[in-house]
Specification:
alpha+beta
Length: 99
Amino acid sequence: MKTAWSLYLVRCSDGSLYTGVTTDVERRFSEHCQGTGAKYLRGRGPLTLEFHCSVGNRSDALRLEHHVKRLDKKQKEALIRETGSNSERLRLFLAACSG
């Protein structure tokens, strides 16, 4: 059985957005909140999980993460508003942003 990977965005107290991928969003977000996750998020709490959706395998997740990390903040905010947690809408949104 293949493991399902998810893409997620976390909002920091300063308003910045962190993008990551994982096989367990709840566990990873908990690690971030406890300060044992990504170094970028340490000391930036309280944190809010703004977006997450299942995106397929690890390769798909890493490719989508790369695309999202290249978006500016305004585009990431639009992604959160417009895609819900729908992976197909996410892919269409990123395709539209790519030109």
